[in-house]
């Protein structure tokens, strides 16, 4: 059971309309948003930020953005966000080999050097203390322009918020996210942990 109980999707009509975005992304409205709407200004601001961050302005694809989100969430240990990110990567057309081998992105041939640079950036930017350095910058600039780097850091920062929110909240994970987590991450020990409704 989560720290705070999610409200009905019909609790705030503006949030409900904005949250239709997640039907494409995940196939359901996340419990995190249903909890945020206890203060509708937060739920609405979060959804609008999410939409802005995930918009494609350059060559950073929707699938890569979700893999960036997965690396960030994996580094912080948020199992809720790991499952959501891998599910969204699947729904946005990530290659099957990438989904199956996301843990080995640094060495697996399914990932390009440009993708590795982006995913290493996600890992370095998500660590505490932060590990972004001159080498990360050099590698990013080999493949990506400044606008694309801003898009990537937008994803990393958005998931920094989500990782804190969902791990602290112990947000109950939805069935669809559990399916994706089990399918792609279970072989490496992923489980729902505190997000299965049994703790708190």
From TrEMBL:
Name of this protein: Carboxymuconolactone decarboxylase family protein
GO molecular function: peroxiredoxin activity
InterPro entries referenced in this protein's UniProt entry, alphabetically: CMD-like (IPR003779)
Domain of life: Bacteria
Organism (species): Winogradskyella luteola
Coiled coil: none
Pfam families: CMD
Domain Carboxymuconolactone decarboxylase-like positions: 40-120
């Amino acid at each position: 059971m989560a720290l705070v109980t999610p409200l009905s999707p019909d609790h705030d009509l503006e949030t409900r309309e904005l949250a239709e975005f997640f039907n494409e992304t995940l196939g359901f409205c996340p419990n995190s948003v249903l909890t945020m709407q206890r203060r509708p200004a937060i739920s609405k601001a979060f959804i609008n930020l999410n939409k802005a961050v995930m918009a494609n302005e350059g060559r950073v694809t929707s699938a890569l953005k979700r893999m960036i989100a997965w690396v960030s969430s994996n580094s912080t240990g948020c199992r809720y966000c790991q499952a959501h990110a891998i599910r969204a990567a699947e729904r946005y057309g990530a290659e099957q080999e990438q989904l199956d081998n996301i843990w080995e992105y640094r060495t697996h041939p399914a990932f390009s050097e440009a993708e590795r640079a982006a995913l290493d950036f996600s890992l370095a930017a998500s660590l505490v203390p932060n590990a972004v350095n001159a080498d990360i910058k050099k590698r990013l600039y080999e493949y990506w322009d400044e606008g694309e780097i801003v898009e990537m850091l937008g994803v990393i920062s958005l998931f920094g918020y989500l990782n804190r929110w969902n791990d602290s909240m112990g947000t109950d994970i939805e069935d669809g996210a559990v399916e994706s987590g089990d399918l792609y991450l279970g072989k490496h020990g992923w489980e729902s942990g505190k997000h299965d409704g049994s703790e708190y």
